[in-house]
Structure formats: C-alpha cells, structure tokens
C-alpha cells in the first residue's frame, strides 16, 4: 500500500485517482503527525510525501520515519512545488528519502517512479522473507545439532557409568565411541576386544549386522590384557533409529562367565546325580521284579505293581536327566536306519493307553511307508508329546494322533489335544531347556526338559517341528519326516 501525505485534500485526491487507475492501493494522511501514527501502525511499500506542510514539514516527517527501525527502509518520494534547487533536493535525500518529484506532477513520471519503487519494495520484501526463513532454518539446525550433541553426551555419560564394555558405531559400523573399559580388552581404539581363537570374529559379525540392519546378540570369550583367562561375554548390539532409519549402533559386552559357570556346575551336578541314582534304581527294579515273580498273594502283588509303576516313572525321569547330560556333552548318539513308522506309532499309543485308560487316543491316517531315523529316539519324542497331551488336558479326554503325507513329500506326524493350550508368547520358548509356562508351574508337576530333549532329537534328524496352540482350546505338537530317501 502507498501512503500519500499532503495537507491539501485535492492533491491527495488527484494522486489517489492516478494511482488507483493503475491498481495501486493507497492510504492517506493530511499532516506529518497523522502520517507518523499511520506508518507505525501499518505497513507501506512507499510514502509520497509533500514537503510543504504546516507544523511538521515533509523533511521532518522523513527524518522521523527513517529513525524508526520498523520504517527506516520504506522508500519516500518527496513532492514539492518549490524547493527545487539543488540544496533542497540534497536535504531530501539526506533525510532518508529516495526520490524527488516537483510539481506540477507529470503523472507518467510519477507512475514510472512508483512502479520502480514498488518493484524494489517487493524484491526487498522477498529478500527479507528469504533471509528470515534462512535465519530460522539455521536456528532450527543449530538447535537440532545441539539436541543431538546433548543426547550423544548423555549416552556417553550413561555408557561410561556402566560396568560393561560399551561402544557406539556410526550407521556403517565404524566405531565412533568406546568407554574406558574398552582399552582394558582391546589393542587399540579402532580394534574390537581380543576374542578366543575359536570364537566368531566380531568385526565380521558387525559387518553382517550392518548389511542386514538387524541387531545381534552372541556369546564371545574375551580377555583383559593383564589376564590369562578368557571370560564369556554377551555381546549385544542394537540400532538407534531416527525416522525409521538407523543412525547409529550401541553395543555392550556383559560378563556372563559366572552365570555360565553356575549353569555348568548345575549340568555337572545333574549328570553326576542321575548317574548315581540310576545304579541303585536298577537294583531296586530288579529286586521288585523278582518279588513280583515269587509273590502269590493278591495284596502283595497289588503293592508290587504300584511300586513298579513308580519305579518306571523314576526311571524315565532319570533317563531324561541323563539325556540332558548327553546333549550338553555332545554324546547323544543316534542309530539311524529304515523302520516301520506305523507300527512304532501303534505301539506308543498302546503303551500310553494302557497306563491312561480314561483317555481315548484316536489315530487318523497311516503312513504306509518306512522312514529313516532313530526309531527309539523318535518313539521317545512321540511318547513325550503324547504324555504331555494327556497331562495338560485334565478336562478333555480325547487325543488325536494324525499321520498324513504332505504334497511336499513329507510325512506329518501330529499329536493334538483339547487341553489347556499355550499362549503365543510361551510358544516361542516352549522348546527351551527348563522352560515351563506359569500355568503349568502352579498346577502340574514336571522339570521342563521333555520338550527340550524332543527338540534336540528332531533337530539332529533335521526334521521340521513345531507347535500350534490356543489357550483354552488345545495344542498340536508336530514334526515332519522327509520321505525322499524311500
Ligand atoms: P514338563 O511337562 O515336565 O514341564 P516339557 O518340556 O515336556 O516339561 O514341557 C514344557 C512345558 O510346555 C510344560 O511345562 C507346559 O507348560 C508346556 N506344554 C507342553 N506340552 C503341552 C501341551 N500339550 N499343552 C499345554 N502345555 C504344554
């Protein structure tokens, strides 16, 4: 908008009409004071200022305008019928005005000047806007950078205060920061701590991790410079993401040697204890069987039978514990050969049904094929799945044993129950050693090793296996035997 300042209304009117004709919006003030009030309140692109006015003349108004920071850059065109000599023109420029037009006004000249100033004003305004946005962009970046620095500092502080070896890497895996523990294990700031010769190469694992964009968690043995012994550490490296992109990785090595030793001692104890228990139990079993043979009165035979049942339970518990030791020491052996899976299934169902007469074990489908594997170990798996199906279905007495050939030429063997079921979360850990669900811990007896042994047997056969289950509806434990070999 253009502000026209003149004490004569007719002058204002004629200027307004010339400018409006060319679509310039205008405003007016009839005195210097009124003009000053308006410039402070509104924004003008140009001021056309009459020099000769009572009270405050145009030069005084211009001086005041150029004194305010808000208005100091607004161009001014002075208008005057007099004061046309050089001295007055110079004064006009000194007081902050930019151009000078003498009366009588030539509308064409006025318009030319107004257009030029208007354009200039627009350009200046755009430049200022650009400058402002650049300034705020710089401010924003500075603040963001500061925040990143603060966060990095905070992270370093945390990583420095923990007892673990800790480090961060850039998104590409190059080490960026390491805490003071690092140098107790590593040869240099850019080398990873020295690992046991039999363990994986950490740098290689990190390369793979960066490529896949997935966190890693692995056990490695590292040792301090001043120590002879390697100690097991859990290396965990997690990504730090910003807007879904990985910006860095944070890693820690936690000393787990003591836990490892405890587990080892426990495994050793289980191994020794089960071996020690096995020998007297075998003798007890022998003597009771002998007693069974020579005893003829019904009451004694009933008690002997009950004793034998308990002996068998104890026997299978000890056998499981011995299997755990064999797995741990890598001594679980397999006798692989072709065998008739149908008769193995029938046999297992029969034995299970004999001891659980209140359950109905239904068989659907037949394999009609010989399979390759360790018959006794696979029978152990089937027996375990069946015993669990019975144990964890106290309310529902029906169990299904499903045998079917899959189009992938694999034989599917599944044990389906309609019992308590297993939650999704528990299903992920169900095959882990000593894992028992909370429900079963409180309501059912067990050690949590049966499924672990089954999983190990099936893994060693390279058979796929798994569980499908819904809490309250039941479970299906299954494995798949490849039939290519037949
Ligand atoms: P155990 O039965 O001695 O606890 P297992 O290794 O055989 O040990 O089973 C581990 C856990 O898996 C059990 O404690 C139980 O929580 C769960 N589980 C196994 N089979 C079933 C099943 N058929 N239905 C529900 N839960 C089961």
TrEMBL record:
<keyword id="KW-0808">Transferase</keyword>
<keyword id="KW-0418">Kinase</keyword>
<dbReference type="InterPro" id="IPR036890">
    <property type="entry name" value="HATPase_C_sf"/>
</dbReference>
<dbReference type="InterPro" id="IPR011006">
    <property type="entry name" value="CheY-like_superfamily"/>
</dbReference>
<dbReference type="InterPro" id="IPR004358">
    <property type="entry name" value="Sig_transdc_His_kin-like_C"/>
</dbReference>
<feature type="domain" description="Histidine kinase">
    <location>
        <begin position="272"/>
        <end position="485"/>
    </location>
</feature>
<dbReference type="InterPro" id="IPR003661">
    <property type="entry name" value="HisK_dim/P_dom"/>
</dbReference>
<keyword id="KW-0902">Two-component regulatory system</keyword>
<dbReference type="InterPro" id="IPR001610">
    <property type="entry name" value="PAC"/>
</dbReference>
<dbReference type="Pfam" id="PF02518">
    <property type="entry name" value="HATPase_c"/>
</dbReference>
<dbReference type="Pfam" id="PF00512">
    <property type="entry name" value="HisKA"/>
</dbReference>
<dbReference type="InterPro" id="IPR035965">
    <property type="entry name" value="PAS-like_dom_sf"/>
</dbReference>
<dbReference type="InterPro" id="IPR001789">
    <property type="entry name" value="Sig_transdc_resp-reg_receiver"/>
</dbReference>
<dbReference type="InterPro" id="IPR036097">
    <property type="entry name" value="HisK_dim/P_sf"/>
</dbReference>
<dbReference type="Pfam" id="PF00072">
    <property type="entry name" value="Response_reg"/>
</dbReference>
<feature type="modified residue" description="4-aspartylphosphate">
    <location>
        <position position="50"/>
    </location>
</feature>
<dbReference type="GO" id="GO:0000155">
    <property type="term" value="F:phosphorelay sensor kinase activity"/>
</dbReference>
<keyword id="KW-0472">Membrane</keyword>
<protein>
    <recommendedName>
        <fullName>histidine kinase</fullName>
        <ecNumber>2.7.13.3</ecNumber>
    </recommendedName>
</protein>
<dbReference type="InterPro" id="IPR005467">
    <property type="entry name" value="His_kinase_dom"/>
</dbReference>
<feature type="domain" description="Response regulatory">
    <location>
        <begin position="1"/>
        <end position="118"/>
    </location>
</feature>
<keyword id="KW-0597">Phosphoprotein</keyword>
<dbReference type="InterPro" id="IPR003594">
    <property type="entry name" value="HATPase_dom"/>
</dbReference>
């Amino acid at each position: 908008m253009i502000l026209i300042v003149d004490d004569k209304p007719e002058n204002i009117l004629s200027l307004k009409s010339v400018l409006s004709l060319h679509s310039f919006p205008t405003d007016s003030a009839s005195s210097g004071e009124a003009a000053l009030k308006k410039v402070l309140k509104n924004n003008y692109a140009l001021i056309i200022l009459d020099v000769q006015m009572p009270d405050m003349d145009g030069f005084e108004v211009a001086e005041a305008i150029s004194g305010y920071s808000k208005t100091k850059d607004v161009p001014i065109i002075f208008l005057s019928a007099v004061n046309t000599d050089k001295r007055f023109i110079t004064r006009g420029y000194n007081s902050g005005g930019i151009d000078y037009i003498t009366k009588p006004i030539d509308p064409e000249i006025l318009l030319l000047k107004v257009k030029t100033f208007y354009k200039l004003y627009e350009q200046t305004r755009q430049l200022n806007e650009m400058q402002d946005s650049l300034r705020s962009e710089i401010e924003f970046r500075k603040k963001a950078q500061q925040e990143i620095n603060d966060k990095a500092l905070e992270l370093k502080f945390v990583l420095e205060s923990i007892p673990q070896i800790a480090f961060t890497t850039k998104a590409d895996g190059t080490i960026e920061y390491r805490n003071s523990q690092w140098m107790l294990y590593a040869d240099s700031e850019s080398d990873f701590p020295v690992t046991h010769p039999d363990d994986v190469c950490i740098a290689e694992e990190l390369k793979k991790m960066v490529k896949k964009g997935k966190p890693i968690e692995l056990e490695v043995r590292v040792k301090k410079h001043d120590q002879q012994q390697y100690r097991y550490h859990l290396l965990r490296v997690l990504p730090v993401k910003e807007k879904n992109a990985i910006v860095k990785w944070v890693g820690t090595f936690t000393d787990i040697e003591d836990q490892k030793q405890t587990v080892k001692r426990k495994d050793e104890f289980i191994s020794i204890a089960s071996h020690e228990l096995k020998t007297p139990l075998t003798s007890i079993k022998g003597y009771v069987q002998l007693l069974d043979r020579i005893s003829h009165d019904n009451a004694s035979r009933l008690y002997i039978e009950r004793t034998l049942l308990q002996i068998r339970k104890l026997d299978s518990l000890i056998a499981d514990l011995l299997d755990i030791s064999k797995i741990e020491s890598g001594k679980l052996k397999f006798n692989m050969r072709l065998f008739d899976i149908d008769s193995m299934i029938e046999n297992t169902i029969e034995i299970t049904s004999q001891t659980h007469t209140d359950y109905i074990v239904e068989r659907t489908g037949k394999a009609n094929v010989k399979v390759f594997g360790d018959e006794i170990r696979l029978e152990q798996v089937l027996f375990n799945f069946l015993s669990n199906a019975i144990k964890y279905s106290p309310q529902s007495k029906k169990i299904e044993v499903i045998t079917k050939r899959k189009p992938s030429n694999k034989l599917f063997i599944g044990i389906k129950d309609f019992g308590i079921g297993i939650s999704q979360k528990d299903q992920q850990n169900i095959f882990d050693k000593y894992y028992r669900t909370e429900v079963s811990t409180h309501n059912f007896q067990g050690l949590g090793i049966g499924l672990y042994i089954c999983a190990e047997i099936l893994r060693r056969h390279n058979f796929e296996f798994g569980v499908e289950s819904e809490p309250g509806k039941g479970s299906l434990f299954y494995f798949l035997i490849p039939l290519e070999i037949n």
